Amino acid sequence: xxxxxxxxxxxxxxxxxxxxxxxxxxxxxxxxxxxxxxxxxxxxxxxxxxxxxxxxxxxxxxxxxxxxxxxxxxxxxxxxxxxxxxxxxxxxxxxxxxxxxxxxxxxxxxxxxxxxxxxxxxxxxxxxxxxxxxxxxxxxxxxxxxxxxxxxxxxxxxxxxxxxxxxxxxxxxxxxxxxxxxxxxxxxxxxxxxxxxxxxxxxxxxxxxxxxxxxxxxxxxxxxxxxxxxxxxxxxxxxxxxxxxxxxxxxxxxxxxxxxxxxxxxxxxxxxxxxxxxxxxxxxxxxxxxxxxxxxxxxxxxxxxxxxxxxxxxxxxxxxxxxxxxxxxxxxxxxxxxxxxxxxxxxxxxxxxxxxxxxxxxxxxxxxxxxxxxxxxxxxxxxxxxxx
Length: 388
Fold this sequence. Notes:
Largest sheet: 5 strands, parallel
Number of strands: 17
CATH class of the largest domain: Alpha Beta
Distance between the termini: 79 Å
CATH superfamily of the largest domain: P-loop containing nucleotide triphosphate hydrolases
Number of domains: 2
Shape: globular
Radius of gyration: 25 Å
CATH architecture of the largest domain: 3-Layer(aba) Sandwich
Structural class: alpha/beta
Strand content: 15-25%
């Protein structure tokens, strides 16, 4: 072969995986290999949601795999399907970065847009949205308002010096067992257009961030994104957050604040986006909250991870006759009559999902002078109280 007359082109192999929210319970995510070349390479990174047009083809399995029990070469006749990519499309943000919200956004019609324009003019729209968050759960109005803010999100800002300020909100629910913490996580996982639900005990640092694996057929290293990367543009729900190992919690520090994941493994050095909100639920150090002890003695988390949560709620199971009677009546009503009219919420779930997506795509709220002074006074007051 005359190497002087050879033409070298860029080539890339991409593993296309099924979206996490579309995977049926108990099944593994399906995947398909994509081959791209020339100017189509480097059009996407792990975690991006893309649309692909190409030709479905079949390739033969690799030959000459060594048998561990003998020195003979065993031929692999398994055929694998792949797509020869002819075109690739990824949704982009206003700043030019890849976005996942565009493809995951539900179908919003003109009637929906007119409804949303009328809804935003209502003076009590915030209260209606909060009441529509997990309406089957009794009480907890402040937590529902915080979850509503998490679903709608804030505005990410790019400063003139290139620094990026995150707009996603992180919420931690810390409290006694049987106070519906996990139900809040399940509701958000069902309502958010992009969401990944995981448990702290069954999650590792590589499963939450990213991992480098070796392809068994080619022997090359491949980069696979974890839960924080797959939920780019959405919400990561982590249950049993206190059951995670400390070294695994340290791995998500960068993802929660900088919203990026830096990888330097097996000769692969890159930075992945993890622009997602985190909703975590945990129990106190001794299982239940003890009124006789200080709150700092019952929170088994370092200050470095607590500082990355914007809202921290201590959910307590307080024994009061009036409250217990109301909760029992609410739960029994769910089992007897299902209370569809009372527990449907002011806004249906499908409309709430569309409204949250529409707000993220179209709305860019700004702080007023009054809000700035209020936040400044609250910050100074909290710092003074912590100093004392």
